[in-house]
Amino acid sequence: MERVNRILEHPLFQECLRQIREAERERIYCKHDMRHFLDVARLAWIAGLEQGLGLDKEIVYAAALLHDIGRARQYVCGTSHDAASAELIGKIMPECGFSVDEAAEVAAAVEGHSQSRRAAVAEEYLGYILREADHASRNCFDCGARESCYWTDERKNLVLQG
Q1: Which tens digit of pLDDT belongs to each residue from 63-94?
Q2: Which residues neighbour 119 within 8 Å (Cβ) at sequence distance 6 or greater?
Q3: Which in 39, 61, 109, 137 has the greatest CB count within 10 A?
Q4: Are 67 and 112 contacting, i.e. CB atoms less than 8 angstroms apart?
């Protein structure tokens, strides 16, 4: 996990985290912080293992750590966080020891991760488990802001799923 730890220390990653934290300081809904990123990483890794997808652990963790990092740009200039995250991945991952191809794979998985959920096809396993883990990471059943959340009741995680 050496390369993943380099992401955690990367100055651009750290700056984006700071900007997100500041922008979400008063937010009552789910935050996009390190807890969320690590919840998504762990859930995605478990899903990949359970489904026998044979994904590389560092790639799964890199995707999860970076999937919402573009929120900083979304809050500042209105850019889609999916697209902004994908762009930032192209800068951060190669500087952390990942290949250009690995960065492209993660960027493709991250782009559109917040779009509607759909069945996975072989080329999209990483994007699929990332999208599913991102959704599953939200504990709506224990959220004090649940009633005013824009998520529909059908979309909210009101019970634990296995």
Answers
A1: 999 999 999 888 888 888 889 999 999 999 99
A2: 128
A3: 109
A4: no
* CA-closest candidate to residue 106, choices 44, 74, 61: 61
Residue with tokens 């789910």: 30
Residue 108: exposure state from Cβ atoms within 10 A (0-12, 13-18, ≥19): middle
Question: Residue 80's CB: how many other CB atoms inside 10 A?
Answer: 14
Q: Secondary structure of the chain: what % helix, strand, coil (to 5)?
A: 65, 0, 35
State how far the Cα of 47 lies from the Cα of 148, in Å rounded to an integer: 30
- How far is it, in rounded angstroms, from Cα 35 to Cα 45? 15
CA 121 to chain centre: 19
Which pLDDT belongs to residue 99? 98
